[in-house]
Amino acid sequence: MSFIYSKKSRYPISYLLIGCVGLLFGMTACQEDKITTAKEPYKFVAPSNFPEPTYTFYNNEITKEGFELGKKLFFDPILSVDESTSCSSCHKQSFSFADLPSNPFSIGISGLVGTRNAPSLANLAFMQEFFWDGGVTHLDFVPINAIENPVEMGEGIAAVIAKIKNAPEYPALFQAAFKTTEINMPLLMDALAQFMLLMVSNHSKYDAHLQGEANLTEQELKGLRLFDEHCEHCHAGILFTNQAYFNNGIDSVFSDSGRARISANPLDIGKFKVPSLRNVAVTAPYMHNAKFFTLEEVLEHYSDGLVNSATLASELIQANGNLGIPLSASEKEAIIAFLKTLTDHEFLNNPIFFEK
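The structure corresponding to this sequence follows.
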């Protein structure tokens, strides 16, 4: 269920309504700001205050049957070489489809441990690039990376397709979803994409505040003002990410070169994609290398813990040359209070994503 806005605004509709009073032409604008609700759970509806989705729906329209097939595949360890690991092994709904806090690095086949923290899967329909280094530019190709990764699932696509063809339940599910007896890699990826595309998170307390349906506390409003002042440049807009790549001062020596692994540009060494902060309170640990386990540690890093290096983001260098974002203890507390308003409990508990 998604609310529909008529404007891409970060301001509450109540504020917009106040702005309309007294304006002759404002009556029409106000009427257009009314929120409507999508009642079809298997239909993708982009919240109107979100950017345009990046996904190419024209060749993979979501259906109930396609979504259900994608869900079955998402939870099925048949995708891994030893049938021990599924997508859901590292992406848990109650943690915004990030990994368990006890798994700073995801655990794959044979107990092998990865090198990066598994990110949230919320709002993938609006992302331009995927993974911490942006190494994939279309959602359909995201699962292939996990399936073929020697640490995560370690399986070949041809072997996966063969196993699915021989599994008694899948042929009928593919027939229902795609009206064909064919089972192949593109249809497998389409089904998984349909499941992930409906992971739209826009029902947090902050969203209700924007709709004029909830009030933030004074502490949360203070945090919002501080966030807009100090954090919004990178965690921009309604998605709370500008989808760019920055070196945020985690280290000065990089065992993981980040974006440079994709771009082959030395100026990208140590840069990683700015993550969305939606549901950030439930997605610990933080950073690509899971260095911090609490939001308090994250803000302490940005105020006093930055490490300088050649590619450090200029936004984290003050005019006097000092590193970091000056924040008092009370300001950090307020920002964290605001960040917690981004938790979308409806999304975290939406039964359409439950494993059957």
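The beta strands are 3-4, 36-37, 245-246, 272-273.
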